Amino acid sequence: MKFVKNLFKWLFIIAIILIAGYYMVKYLVPSVGKAPKQAKMEQSPYYQNGKFQNVVETKSADFSQMPGIIKEYINRKAESAPSSDYVFQETNSELLSKDTSNTIHYNWLGHAAILMEKKGKYILLDPMLGKRASPFSFMGPKRYSAPPISAEDLPELEAVIYSHDHYDHLDYETIVKLTEKTKYFYVPLGVAASLESWGIPKEKIKEFSWWDQAQQDHEITITATPARHFSGRLFSQNNTFWASWVIQWDNEKVYFGGDTGIFDGFAEIDQKLGPFDMALLPIGAYNEAWHDIHMDPKEAVEAYHQLRTEKFFPIHWGTFDLALHSWYEPIQQLVEMSQNDQLPLITLPQGEWFSKNDHSENYYWWKKYSNTLNQ
What we know:
Keywords: Membrane, Transmembrane, Transmembrane helix. Pfam families: Lactamase_B_2. This is MBL fold metallo-hydrolase. One of its GO terms (cellular component) is cytoplasm. It is a single chain. With 375 residues, this protein is α/β, with parallel strands linked by helices. The chain folds into two domains: 32 residues; 265 residues, Metallo-beta-lactamase, Chain A. Helix content is 23%, strand content 19%. A hairpin with a 5-residue loop joins β3 and β4. The protein is globular, with a radius of gyration of 21 Å. The N and C termini lie far apart (66 Å).
């Protein structure tokens, strides 16, 4: 009887500690974010049974697969990170501020983050410039190297556009530094609640469902388009929506994939809004366990063909260790495929400006940072 009493005592203490820890993290760690009001989300046709849904059946890794995935990580032999000299030139945000050409210039800031510039105006996509893709500063996937520009050094921004609410895309430390210098934040349904809790004025936030559209300054049209993915922070899953985006800037059209699995929606996007001058397509962080929600290089090529785009720049690789493949595998495979398929691929390192008029020689710049490829 004494043993049973002591057992219940310790179980009670553990339960109290867990509950206290939950509420401490939820209310004292701002990066956890805030849940949206369910009544508003229920108005969306994509919101069912308390969660946002994809339009096609979509599976992601579940708890039953965790033991196998953990075992794979333990036995992993792939090169998980580049060498320590994986450092990029600093982006000069003023370099093109006096540019008068009628062309969008792009700069890859790592992962899915892209800085767009045209005639001295700037738009920023999925700016994750923090050290870790995590709610905590001391744990979680760590960035391989510093971004080519800090949030503090970025110029004034016409718009910041987010594809979805995941730590490797929507970063608290980055966004709070962009509040004062950004005109508008464009986010999928439900994400506004977190932004408002982080101090971003409500009037600066534009919250979209798929196919919602807004015009800014008579020269920029921004449209939320379908994606096949999911969302979630520490204590929530799929209570906010996800999207890809189409940005039309004067006569130039850009497709931004953000983070998505392969699906027939690319053809629909092209039919309604294409063709495109540039496609920014994710190619990394794939695995068979979550195949439906992340494209691999072969699927990214398939998406490229559906979109009918003039140029293709790969994103979502080479910044964080988020899957079991080597850090360089996505780009290595993509370039090899592009040579067979004659893809109009641009493969520049982080921190370098490019436009649709530039041509990439597909030089393997990442090879020098790999111990495996240099053998």
